[in-house]
Structures are given as C-alpha cells and as structure tokens.
Amino acid sequence: MEKISLQIDQHQIETERGTTIIEAARKSGIEIPALCYMNLEGMCIKNQPSSCRICVVEVEGRRNLAPACATKCENGMKVRTSSMRVLNARKTVMELILSDHPHDCLICAKSGSCQLQGLTNKLRIREVPFEGERNRFEKEVSPSIIRDMNKCIYCRRCETMCNDVQTVGALGAVNRGFDATISPAFGNKLSDSECTFCGQCVAVCPVGALTENDYTNRLIDDLNNPRKTVIVQTAPAVRAALGEEFGFAPGTSVTGKMASALRELGFDKVFDTDFAADLTIMEEGSEVLARLNAFLSGDKSVKLPVLTSCCPAWVNFFEYQFPDMLDIPSTARSPQQMFGAIAKTWWTEKMGIKREDLTVVSIMPCLAKKYECGREEFSENGNPDVDYSISTRELAGLIKRANIDFRSLPDSDFDNPLGESTGASVIFGATGGVMEAALRTAYELHTGMPLAKLDFEEVRGLQGIKRAVVDMNGFELKVGIAHGLGNARKLLNEIRRGESVYHVIEIMACPGGCIGGGGQPLHRGNSAVLKARSNALYEEDRSKPLRKSHENPYIIKLYEDFLGKPLSEKAHHLLHTHYFNKSK
Amino acid sequence: MSYNMHILVCGGTGCQASSSKTIISRMNEYLKEKNLDKEVQVIATGCFGFCEQGPIVKIMPDNTFYTQVKPDDTEEIINEHIIKGRKVSRLLYKEPEHHNPVSDSKHIEFYKKQLRIALRNCGFIDPENIEEYIAREGYTALAKCLTEMTPQEVINEIKLSGLRGRGGGGFPTGLKWEFASKYVADQKFVVCNADEGDPGAFMDRSIMEGDPHSIVEAMAICGYSIGANKGLVYIRAEYPLAIKRLRIAIKQAEDYGLLGENIFGTGFGFTIEIRYGAGAFVCGEETALIHSMEGHRGEPTTKPPFPAESGYLNKPTNVNNVETFANVPVILNKGAKWFASIGTEGSKGTKVFALAGKINNVGLIEVPMGTTLREVIYEIGGGIKNGKKFKAVQTGGPSGGCLTETHLDTPIDFDNLIKVGSMMGSGGMIVMDESDCMVAVAKFYLDFIVEESCGKCTPCRVGNKRLYEILSKITEGKGTMEDLDNLRNLSHVIKDTALCGLGQTSPNPILSTIDNFYDEFVAHIRDHRCPAGKCKALLTYHIDSQLCIGCTLCARNCPTNAIAGERKSPHFIDTEKCIKCGTCIDKCKFNAISIR
Q: How big is the A-B interface in CB pairs under 8 Å?
C-alpha cells in the first residue's frame, strides 16, 4: 500500500492511501465525533452514509466542510478537525438533531449509553435554539424490539445491518425530507414484516429509537410472588459479556459472579442453558449421524446438508426467505426451549411442583429468544415451556437496581441437575462453537474411538463463512459455518442451486455468533469486543474437566431416567420441532 | 413531394393545452376541402418559446407570425392568408409599447436579441420526422466524429468550445468527458439528465419535445468519445409528450442505422434506453439520479467517487443535462472556435431561460452569454406587467438568489451570477414586481426545498425545515431580530455542511433576500408590517367611514360575519373575526375598503 502524509490539526500523519480522515485521525489519537459512521473492522461491515454531518472537518482548499468519515486522505492534505468554523457547524448540526428529538432522557431506555446524549454533553449544548415541529410517530412494541422513531436520528445503521449485513430487508428509509424515517415496508409493524428479531438493529442504534422489550418488571413481580417457583437458565454467551456492564474488560468471564448474583436476586434455582446445549448436541448430533448414514446408504428421501437450528432469528429467516427448504434444518429445538421442556416435565415431576406454579426465565444474549418463548408450539395448554427471556443488558440493569455489588461477589456454581455442563456447550456462544461441540460428540459416536485433539481451530474465528473437512476415520465430513444472515444466505443459495458440498452447516444470525447478539452489551460495531468475548468462551472450555457433551453425567442420567435414548419418541415430543412457511 | 407553403403550428405542451392539436386537424381538414392539401403542409413543431402568446402559428416561407390563434381562426387564416395572400392582421403580434402589429417574427422584440443554438430546431421542424432533422445538418456531426475524428479529438473540440454544463453546475463538459474516457472498464454509460425540476422551468422539456434527435445524436457522440455503447435518458414521467417524441426519435434513429450496432459501418455501436423518474427534485443531482435508475431510493451519495469513476451499476458514467447535449452537434458541425466566439470570457455560447413571473413576455428564450438582465427583462421580456415597478429577479431555480435593480446591468454568465449571490442554475428566471413580498418569496422557495429534500443529511432535513419555520414566524409578525441572526448562521452552516448540491444551495434565496432586502425583513419584525402588502397576518382591513354609504353588500358577503353596521351608515370590521379573504374589497363599489 502506498504511504501518504498529511497534517491533521498539529499532527503530521503517515497513512495508507485510501484511508478516510476519520480513521487516520483515530489511529493518531484524535477522536472526531460522529453519529452515523460505524465501521465493523475485519467483518466488512461499514455504515458510511455521511449523513449526520457531525464529523465535518475543514480541509484546506475545499469550499465547504468535508465529512471525515467519507473523505479519503490525500498526500499533503491539511485538515482541521476543530477550528471555530467546524465547532460552530458541529454545534448547529447537533442543535438541529436535538430540535427533532424528544428531551426525555430521564426515562429513556438508552439513557447513559446513548451516543447522542454523550455527544450533546461533550459539545456542551445547553439549549436548543430551534423551536418548531417535531415528528410524531407511533411507538411499536413487538415481543422483542421496541421501535420509537421519534428518537431516530436517521443514521441508517439499522438499515445497513438489516439490509447489507443480514439481508433481511425488513427496515428501509421511507418518506422524504423532514418526514423521512426508517420503517418496514408500507408502514407495517415489525411483527408483520420479515423481521427475524435478530436485534442487530438494536445492537448498533446510537440512540433510544431501537431498544429491547424489557421484561424485568415482570420478573420482579414473579420473584416477589411466594406462590411461584422461579428458576433461571443462562446462555453461554452471557457470561462472556455481562462483566462489561460492571467495568470488566471485554472478554472477562464472570460465570461464577453471575450465578451468585442470580441467587441473590432470589431465583429458586440457578440453572444453565449450557446443560441444554449438551442435550442439543446429543439430539442434533444423533440426527446428523442418522441422516448422514441414511443418505450414504442411498435413501433418496433424506436431504443434506443438515442445518443447525439453535438460533431463533435464523429459524425466522429461513421460514420467511427459504420456505422451500423447511425440511433441511435439524428438527432439534434450541437449547433454551429444550431446557424449558425438560424443566417443565422431568424436573417438575421430580420436584413435585405443578407446571403452572413454575416460572422458567432465561437470560439470553439475544432478542429473538423473547419471541421464541412465545411460539405456540413451545407451550402446553397455553403454558409456555420458557415463560420469558431477558437479555444480558436487562440482567445487568436489574443487578444494578438491586444494589448488588457485582464486582465483589464471590463465585458460585450452578445448581444441579440442570446446571451441569461440559466445555462443548460453553463454546455454543461463539460462531463455529456448535459445530465444534457437535464434531467432538459425532466423531466419537460415529467412530467409537476417542478424539485425539478436541480443538477444531479451523471452525473458529470471525471470518464470515468458514469451511472445514473432518476426517471421521476414513469418511470425510464437510462442514460449513456462517454467522450473519447475509453469509447464511450465500450458503442457502448454494443449497438451493444444488451446488452445496456440505454435510452439515452451522448458522448463527448475529456477527460473531451469540456473543454479538442483539441482547448483549451494545457492540456498536466493535469487532475487537467480539473477539475478546469469543476468547473468553474458548478459555472457559479449556478449563472445564469435561469437554464433550456425551460425557455430561446429568445428561446421561436424564436419558437413563426419562428420555431413553437420543431421538426416542419422548425426545421427539419434547426436544424436536417443525417449521412453518412464513413467506407471503 | 414538395409543398409551396408550410404552416408551422406549435405542438409543445403549452400550446397543445390551448388546443393547438385541434387547430392542426381543422387546418388539415379545411386544406383538403379546398384541395390545397398537396400544396400546403401543416407541421406540428416544437415550442416557439413565446408561450405567453400561444398557440403560435407561423406561415412559411414569408415568416408571418400569428399569435393566440384559436381553432375557429383556422379557416380565416387559410382563406385570407393562404388563398388570397392577405395577412390576418388581428392575429398578428402587437408590441406592448406601441401596439402596432408586427408580421415577421424576426422583427418582434422578443426574438430580436435571441440567438438560438440549443433551440435551433424548436418551432422549425417536425420533431417526429427524422428527415427534417437530417435536412438541418442532423447526424452529420455524428458522422464526422465517427469517420474523421478520434475520441480524444472529439473531447478536445468540446473542451476548446468552452461548453459548460447547463444543468446548473456549469462544469466544463469536455473535461467531464475526458474524465469518463480515462477510466478503463468493460462497460461505460452515457446518461442524459432530463429530470428537469425547477418550478416553472421547461427548457429541457421543450428541447426534447421540439428537437429530440439532437439529444440522440449528442449522446451517441458522447458515447463514442468516452467509450460507452449504452445511453440512458432519465426523464420524469410527468413529461409524456417529451417521452413520446424521444421514443419516436430513438426508433427512427435505429431504423436509419444511426443507433444500434456498427453505425456508419465504423464498428461503433450505441443504443439508448429511457428510464422514468417519479418527479423527485433531488433526482436531478447526478448521484441521486443514478441511484434512482438502479432502483434504489433517490438519494445522493458523497462525491468522490464521481460518476466518471463509479456511476451507474458502479461503472464509469458520464451525466449531462439535455441542453448541454443539444449544443454538442452544432459545436462539432460549426467548430469549437465559432462556439467560443459567442458569450463571455468564462461562459461560452448561449443559455436558454424560462422567463416567468410579472413580465409581459412569458416564455422560453435563448440568449448569448453576456446578455444583461436588463436586456432580458426589458427588451426580450417586454418589461413588467401592468406598468408596475420592477423589484427583483430570481435566477437559478429554488436554490438561486434574488437580484435587484442594481444588478440589472450584470452580464449573465455562470461566474457573474455567483459573484452577485445568485447562480445560473438550469435557467429559471422569475421576475417580481413591487407587489411581491421578498420574505414571502424566500419562504416560498424554502417551502419547495423542504418538500423536495430527500431527508438524508441533517442540515437539509432539519435545517431547511427550521429555516422555513423562522421565515413563517417573520411573515406572521412574530419574528425577532435574533431570528434574523439565526437565519443567517443556520443558512451558512447548511451551505457548509449539507451533503449534496441541493442542500448546499438551498439557503441562497434567504441569504440573497436578507442581503438585498434587509429593510423589508426589519419592517416585518420591528414594525409588524409587510411593505408589499402580501403577508396576510400583518394586514388589517379598514372601512373608510367617509366613503362607506352603508349599502351592506360587504357585510352580506363576509364569510365570517366580521363586518357590522347599520344600513345607510358607515360599517366597520371586527379585525378579530376578519380572515382577510378580500371578498369585501371585491364587493365594495365605493372603494371604501383598504388594506393597511
């Protein structure tokens, strides 16, 4: 790459040709404020509409101010990032944004983490000189996401995530001028659109326009209800990110503190979704082997590849976009739902609790999980297997509300029997993790031999699509892994065209897998954070005494006591599902 | 077949709306009846430009110019003029100054100072007949380029001519072509920007309606010079007649082998497709236009990359406006030097303007660059309507500026107009008289911008809305002097920070009116008075008790019962109830009611 040299403020800077002013400045420690700009480095995700005009800078020789996010550095360029002309323009533009923004920060869900609020403070804006009309859009409350477009600053990040990254196409710009806003087509609600509830729009929204539907008040009511037994399950990715809300560096695993905090909050049992993840491997792994064997023995009714089905946004995606391929994904329910089904049958029986008196709550890195809880097929006589799901962010908020000093909490273990897990289940939270866990079990079940090396490095990492060939004692198993629905679409299109070479494919809707989920502390496009979270999960896997799902003693016991064997009739009834055509 | 006489009837949109189609069919019927249809040919031409006086009928070869012709006049024209050789003097144009009929259009003041290059064929040929275009040197420039010149030579010729983009930006056309020619790609595009959107402007529409082949020819020439074999015309769907004539022109050119593969046996091929716009003003901005053509939301994107590098479908694309293209064949036929001899130092050739507002001769004119505003308004335009006083002229469309008496001797060209705080724009020219309120005028243009902003960038989406709201406040008499400062600062910030040309120029009407009509703003703010008497909220209606005889007519017609008074004694108006509709003034026979 050609090196060029330019001056930004007082700094003489060397950079590569093609670098934008904002990136060159950032690398030299000069932070040019911006609202719409977002660069998810290493994942080819960039939102750069250059529309907020906050990052404008003065470039010598140029008539008007230049957006630093979209202007490339030139050799010999002289840039001033905060001349008085720039400061005045930036202040005025901020005042304009604020003149069409509700000033209800006191009760806004994003208060404290809102980038508009932060910048308002940084620019020391103390009054808004412009009075006038404000947009009045109706607020939409879906099971997962709340959309309040009155707070939208039209940065278009959500649109980029929904269209370019996820290729879902639920959100787009509508109307013109002052009335311009982001909406599903024809002014429909998210619930009536092809939205998968992946929540990536929420993960990048700089303001309170897109937030999760918060269930913590309902949880407080239930914990406060003496007639209810309230148990909780926590997804693998939560432990790798929750700490960030309490000042721990990204990638700090807080499993033990989290269990203590949940106990402190008053849950009757603190269980782990990881237990159900091990169960998923048993069912899904067995299904994969069964389908593979049938296929290889010439059964034409069996289709390959098998697709994983843990991710509810991914399930929504193929139900909307690939309804012709509903027979390909594994029928195994997600770990969250497997947990609920077991808790409300086997465990209630064991404990002598009535189903109606048990509340199953899940802590998830995900917003689609909120929607998944409400799917009709996951309930019995109107009583859901999992009552509701709260996100990592909501849990952090509740811990703070309850005055729990998270940082100084001692570590504690999960309760048994639904809290025991192996290393294989922990890595479910990172892209490639489900595949790696499945390979560990499938290999041993298929070959009957112990696996020499447990780490499948080739399926790890943040590359959009990963491919690997695994030698299963002579048989070459071809696996594919995609994270982000845009990548998933590529693999799905290959299958549709009959060009897919894979036997098994793992798909996670969110960038990086669940660690980058829409319910996590906002990643806002920072891939370094995702890498750190992913490392935390692999670290925890390494430190576990048991690292293969089929070795989990409580899983073995569950099959002995209750389910029989994987894919048994009971397992089918409780742990498997079917899919619906949602295309219109 | 050759005819002895031709009757040219304007077939432009304006004259068609005044029944020119009926005139043509009645003429044809009557000529047949009189057995003259083999000797006299009726031709529907493009726009003559003198729209104020339409429908226009011109008899050739003697150049007799009939105005405001009605379908019922057709028989008289044929009986008198064609058969008996006597001019129908009541249909001849009469100059507003001396009221004497002028027969030959060359002697009409409106045409005297005009020089028609882009409009050379408008009002002269049948735009639906390629042979008439060919007879006027049509497609000879294309032939010359393809057979005698290299692409670079064509570009050099255009560069030498000094032609600058007529769509508003004024960027040198030859340079633009050169940029596009330098990029190497498997596919390049030539785009004709026919998304004319300035209120009241119809230059491009008239060219496409009156001389569509000139666009087809120029696009092919451009394609040859930059290495593109595909042309696209982006035209607003509200221009059905222009679309129809372009379609006919493209089909005819294809039939004649002037479009398609291997043109003139040179191996160069070029095709043209039409793309329809839905009428968004911002789609005249080239990046927004390209996105709209691609099927995306019509929104601009930051330049660079310029379309020459990455345009339609991310391929090198050259976008020129209709009028720019219309000049190209003539330049290549007559030579760059000839073209460069017309106009001013920095702006060569002519410019077409849509002259409108409070002016006697409303219409489409084409003048050499360097003509003064005074010449345009007073000589070509025939001065201000109804003997009123000139107040301002707005050039450059909604993002231009308002110029005053002191600017009238400014020679019109790209740079001069910018120097005095306005711009050339695509050629809208709206004249205002003393009864126009300049605050209201600024508000009118902002209203247009607020309506037409795509909403993408903050300054344009919110800023223009706030400018409009402050102006509204001032026209309602609720403004403060601080508002005036806010207007200025906000206007400068919008110009400095907006993403595209629309936003970067949108505050121009405000800044130029504040600069040139500061007192008028102050009158609204400090004195709560609208000097022009236009801002309703600042007006009060009064009945002069001396003049009112108590006839009760006003009171009976007032829609809000705001007028009271005994019969046969002076009435009075309750200003609280009065909605200032003006009905009472219209009804009063004694001039007793006035506005203050």
A: 106
pLDDT in tens, A17-46: 999 999 999 999 999 999 999 987 766 678
Write down how long chain A is: 584
CA of B298 to nearest chain A CA: how many angstroms apart?
Answer: 10
How deeply is B583 buried, as exposed, middle or buried, from its count of CB atoms within 10 A (0-12, 13-18, 19+)? middle
Average pLDDT of the segment spanning A428-453: 94
> Is domain B5-108 given the CATH code 3.40.30.10 in the classification?
yes
Does residue A549 belong to any structural domain of this protein?
no
Q: Kindly indicate whether the domain formed by B438-526 is annotated with CATH number 3.40.50.150.
A: no
Angle at the Cα of B87 from the Cα atoms of B84 and B90, rounded to 5 degrees = 130
* Total of domains in chain A: 2
Domain range for residue A227?
216-275+336-408
Whether the Cβ atoms of residue B388 and residue B422 lie closer than 8 Å to each other = no
Tokens 């595209």 belong to which residue?
A: B500
- Contacts with A47 from chain B: Cβ below 8 Å: none
Percent of chain A with pLDDT over 90: 93
A365: confidence class by pLDDT, cuts 50, 70, 90: very high
What does the pLDDT average to over A428-435? 96
pLDDT tens figures, A478-523? 999 999 999 999 999 999 999 999 999 999 999 999 999 999 998 7
Is B493's Cβ below 8 Å from some Cβ in A? yes
Per-residue pLDDT at B1:
57
Question: Is A543 noted as a catalytic residue in this protein?
Answer: no
The Cα–Cα gap between B70 and B59 comes to 15
Share of chain B above pLDDT 90, in %: 87
Residues A257 and A114 in one domain: no
Is domain B130-339 annotated with CATH 3.40.50.11540?
yes
Tell whether A363 is covered by a domain: yes
The domain boundary residue, chosen from A71, A98, A122: A122
What's the topology of domain B350-433?
A: Ubiquitin-like (UB roll) (3.10.20)
State how far the alpha carbon of A341 is from the alpha carbons of A313, A418, A564, A571, in Å. 20, 12, 16, 10
Last residue of a domain, one of A88, A122, A156: A122
* C-alpha torsion sign, points B403, B404, B407, B412: positive
Has residue A220 got a pLDDT over 90? yes
Q: Topology of domain B540-595, per CATH?
A: Alpha-Beta Plaits (3.30.70)
What pTM did the predictor assign? 0.92
Instruction: Please tell me the predicted confidence (pLDDT) of residue B96.
Output: 77
> Among residues A287, A319, A436, A506, which one is catalytic?
A287
Question: Is the same domain home to A106 and A225?
Answer: no
Residues with pLDDT less than 70, chain B: 1
Same structural domain, A232 and A99: no
**Residue A266 belongs to some domain of the structure:** yes
Distance (Å, rounded) from C-alpha B190 to C-alpha B275?
Answer: 13
Pairing of strands A45-47, A38-40: antiparallel
Checking if the pLDDT of A16 tops 60, the result is yes
> Which tokens hold the place of A25?
């400045």
By DSSP bridging, strand B390-395 and strand B401-403 are: antiparallel
* List of residues 6+ apart from A102 with CB closer than 8 A: A108, A134, A150, A151
Question: Is A173–B455 a contact, with Cβ atoms under 8 angstroms apart?
Answer: yes
Domain assignment of residue A413, yes or no:
no
3-class DSSP state of A13: strand
